[in-house]
Amino acid sequence: MIKKSRKVRDYKKLTKALPTDRYLNPKSVHIHLQNNRCKTYDLHVKEGDHVKLGQVIGVRHGGFFEQNIHSTISGTIGKTSKKVHRSGRKVDCIEIKNDFKETYHESVVDRTDAQIEKLTQEDMVDILKEKSLVGLGGSGFPTYIKLATKDPIDTVVVNAVECEPYLSSDYRLILEHPERVVKGLQYIMQALDVQKGIIAIKSSKDPLYEVLTQVLKVRFPEMNVKVAKLGNHYPQGWEIEVFRHALNIDIPHGVLPTKYGVIGFNVSTTVGVYDAIKHNLPVTKRHFTLTGDAIKFPQNYRIKVGTPVKDLIEKSEGYKKDIDEMVVVMGGPMMGNATLDDDIIVSKTTTSVIVLENKEYKEEQCVRCGSCVYSCPARIQPQQIMQAYKRKDKEQIEELEAYKCVECGLCAYVCTSKIHVTDYIRKAKKLIG
After folding, report:
1. Cβ atoms within 10 Å, residue 343
2. Contact 376, 425 (CB under 8 A)
3. Which of 385, 363, 360, 381 is nearest to 372 (CA)?
4. Coil, strand, or helix at residue 87?
5. Residue 43, SS3?
6. What are the strands, taking DSSP E only, across 340-399?
7. Could you tell me if 356 and 326 are in contact, meaning their C-beta atoms sit under 8 angstroms apart?
8. Which of 5, 12, 131, 213 is most buried, by CB atoms within 10 Å?
9. What is the mean pLDDT of residues 363-369?
10. CA 164 from centre of chain
11. 300 φ, ψ to 5°?
């Protein structure tokens, strides 16, 4: 039976109605020294050193950029150890033991509105570079590089769709701090000399629409910003889908949106821009969803970057006792990475952890039903790419344009034979480099 779908079952109600719980004083944090884009690093501190909140303690080295590493609390440097990163790999982390004094580094000083009004694009790019702001929706791409574009921009789009099942941290962020979202957008529009902004949400999120439109009307009447209600299908949060439905623009694969006069930022990243420009503060906190059917009390948290997930599981009353074996998903269930290890540290780009009962599914033979093809938002041939990968046929994989896959997970979700099609395509992409 052909199973075409652009919708996935939603589990956001487990957490979205609850106020965000603040957990900002962990006994210690573990700061990632490596990530997907930066494999090497230099550490400027040693065990026993005292550091302040917002202090630069090292630098990561990427292929074409560097990232300062900041302390997210004040306290004493501990040991370096291996911890699970959101990519599923274990990477080096440095422990900082909390002194519970929340002493800010001398560089963390608010800018006045008058000072901010004088900032140029180059000024803001330098600030975001020094504060190491990256895409907080999970991409991790340096924000200063995106903001430094020389292409003329007509419209800035804030992506607040949050289309993954289970996740509701961005929803709570907007509901509880709408002015920070709008101010961050205002700073981006100033940097790029743009007069038009759009905040894109799902059409089902009426509370966000009401809050944002009211804040824009009352507090920011001078801004030309509208709240756009988009579709409820998955993956509506994919940037190409956002631009297609918010602006009626189809951007070809491999072409930068800036070539079409549009640029997009995740809503959490937009708030990060606000914190960096207004408070000269790196990302030390983030909204985070801990949920799943193996957790007793799913909850959204406001936490310090570097917080152990085990602390949050304990705060959520632990695991359900009738669960035999668990699988831990970092990120959304459709596009995240799974592990059986809960020794996970929340990085800047970790949006969520979902703990589910581990159920075994028997993979059956592909029956060529076409469900994956009909459901694919990138309009490629998942089943044929999978077969080409099994043959290790690089030429065929390239001809089938496997590189266009956004790894949304829909092909695996709709597969009538329970095949992990997305995983095969991911491997195929790696095979052709």
Report:
1. 15
2. no
3. 381
4. coil
5. strand
6. 352-357
7. yes
8. 131
9. 92
10. 11
11. -90, 135
**C-alpha 306 chain-centroid distance:** 15
Q: Which residues make beta-bridge pairs with 43?
A: 58
Q: What are phi and psi of 109, to 5 degrees?
A: -135, 130
Say if residues 244 and 250 touch (Cβ distance below 8 Å). yes
Strand ranges of the sheet holding 337-339, from the earlier edge strand across to the other edge: 21-23, 299-304, 285-291, 352-357, 326-330, 337-339
Torsion sign over Cα 230, 231, 232, 238: negative
Which residues touch 118 (CB under 8 Å, ≥6 apart)?
none
Contact between residue 271 and residue 189 where contact means Cβ atoms under 8 Å apart:
no
Instruction: Round to whole Å and give the CA distance between 284 and 282.
Output: 6
Q: Report pLDDT digits (tens) over 321-352.
A: 888 788 999 998 899 888 888 889 999 999 99
Bridge partners (DSSP) of residue 28 are: 97
Residue 289 vs residues 18, 168, 176, 231, 366: alpha-carbon distances, Å:
11, 7, 15, 23, 35
With both helix axes pointing from N to C terminus, report the angle between 267-279 and 178-192 in degrees, rounded to the nearest 10.
80
Q: Which amino acid would we find at residue 112? A: T
Cβ-based neighbour number of residue 33 at 10 Å: 21
Closest CA to 344 of 355, 333, 334: 355
- Domains of the chain (ranges; CATH) run 12-106+283-357 (2.40.50.100), 113-279 (3.40.50.11540), 371-431 (no CATH)
Q: What is the rounded CA–CA span in Å between residue 166 and residue 68?
A: 32
User: Average of pLDDT values for 175-191?
Assistant: 98
Give the gyration radius of the chain's Cα atoms.
22
pTM across the whole model: 0.95
Count CA atoms within 13 Å of residue 12 on its CB side: 18
Q: What is the pLDDT of residues 66-92, one digit of tens each?
A: 999 999 999 999 999 999 888 778 899
DSSP SS3 for 358: coil
The type of residue at 238 is W
- Name the amino acid, one letter, at 323: I
